[in-house]
Write a structure and sequence with these properties.
By secondary structure, the protein is an all-alpha fold. Helix content is about 65%, strand content about 5%. It has helices spanning about 1-30, 35-45, 50-60, 65-75, 80-95, 105-110, 130-149, and strands at about 115, 125. Strands 1-2 form a two-stranded antiparallel sheet. Strand 1 and strand 2 (about 125) form a beta hairpin. Helix 4 packs antiparallel against helix 5 (about 80-95), helix 4 (about 65-75) packs parallel to helix 6 (about 105-110) and helix 5 packs across helix 7. The protein is globular, with a radius of gyration of 24 Å. About 25% of the residues are buried.
C-alpha cells in the first residue's frame, strides 16, 4: 500500500511539474514588463543623435561597417538603389564581407540594421537620428564607399 501511495505521489508531482512547465517556459520567453521597460523606452529618443556624432561614426567606419550601412541606406530608400547598388556590390566584392558561404561579417550585418560602431563604444543606431541626418549620413557613406573602390 505504501509503494502504491509513493507512485501516486510521484505521478502527482510529475503532473504538477508538467502543468507548470508552460507557465515557466512562457515566463522565460516573454519580454520584460513594468517600470524597467518604460525606463528603457524613455532612454531611446527618436532624433536624439546629433549630426556630429553620426558623421564622426561614418568617418571612422571600417569597410564592413560601410557596406552594411550602405545596404541599410538602400533598403530604407535614403539612397537610389540603381545608383548605390553597384557601389555596394563592388565594395562587397572587394572586401568579401558577404561571402557565398554562410559565414558573413557581423559588422556588415549590424550595419545593415542601421547600427554604426563608434570607436570602442557601444554602437549607435541611425534610427535614433533625424531623417535629414540619416540622409546626409547615407550620402557620406556612399561617397566613402566609392573612394574605397
Amino acid at each position: 500500500m505504501i509503494s502504491c501511495l509513493g507512485r501516486v505521489l510521484s505521478v502527482g508531482a510529475v503532473a504538477t511539474l508538467l502543468a507548470a512547465a508552460p507557465v515557466l517556459a512562457h515566463a522565460e520567453t516573454s519580454p520584460p514588463t513594468g517600470a524597467g521597460v518604460a525606463n528603457q523606452v524613455e532612454q531611446i529618443k527618436m532624433g536624439s543623435l546629433s549630426e556630429k556624432t553620426v558623421m564622426s561614426a561614418v568617418s571612422s567606419a571600417k569597410p564592413a561597417d560601410l557596406g552594411g550601412i550602405l545596404n541599410y541606406c538602400i533598403q530604407s530608400n535614403y539612397l537610389t538603389a540603381s545608383e548605390a547598388w553597384p557601389v555596394l556590390a563592388a565594395l562587397n566584392k572587394k572586401t568579401n564581407d558577404v561571402p557565398s558561404n554562410s559565414k558573413g561579417n557581423m559588422s556588415y550585418a549590424d550595419g545593415s540594421t542601421g547600427l554604426l560602431k563608434v570607436g570602442g563604444k557601444a554602437p549607435i543606431s541611425l534610427e535614433d537620428a533625424s531623417t535629414d541626418i540619416r540622409r546626409a549620413a547615407c550620402a557620406k557613406v556612399e561617397t566613402r564607399a566609392k573612394s574605397l573602390l
